[in-house]
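Predict structure. Chain length: 253.
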Amino acid sequence: MASNPAPSLTPTSTIDPAEAARFGAMAADWWNPKGSSAMLHKLNPARLSFIRGAVDAHWHSDAKSLRPLAGKRALDVGCGAGLLCEPLARLGAHVTGIDAAPENIAAAQAHATAQGLAIDYRAVGVEALGETGFDLVTSMEVIEHVTDPARFLHGLADALAPDGLLILSTPNRTPLSRLAMITLGEGLGQIPKGTHDWAKFLTPEEIEPLLNYAGLRVTRWSGLMFDPTRGFVLSENRTLNYLLTAVKTAPAA
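Prediction complete.
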């Protein structure tokens, strides 16, 4: 099998202005579980279950602890209005949330303040963040919206502490994801039209070399599937959507 050429890293930012504007227009409705972001609300319990398991495994924390991230710095990239940042803060982390849409950041700040949570929100792309050393970096359902996945992953890796943990999720590019997320999801109004470009979805086989090129090594995979009786659940089946954890590759001796 031919080796993949090194991906281009020429752009200085991976933010797609059209995508930022699209999601920014939904900011006011982001926390409405029946609104335009309803699908993210439905995804969140399964995503949080995966994150909690990954955190416990990486730091050998007590599964019964309510604050396994106490003392840790967490960065959520593409945070929207804070659906993941707030649970991470409640798990004890000092959380920074960044997003390309200022409208999302304003909504996130307002909601966190109302909840009594101190979260550092910034309207900036990961490449321009200018900070490193985060123990936990998360980016959920974001990479399929950026202009250059390779550079985006380099940005995530740069922000990560040497012994930190990256957690990422994204739809797989399969006939099932096209049917479920675009034909049915967007076609029936469960997801706002135009949210997804199926051609930009990455398969696990495509994303892993990009992670490796960014100096990251995948340590765990999980699928995310829909169960009619339980909603979204973690699964070994990665056909619809998948999550992964990765750590920095140890430098050669």
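Summary: Residues 38-59 form the longest helix (22 residues).
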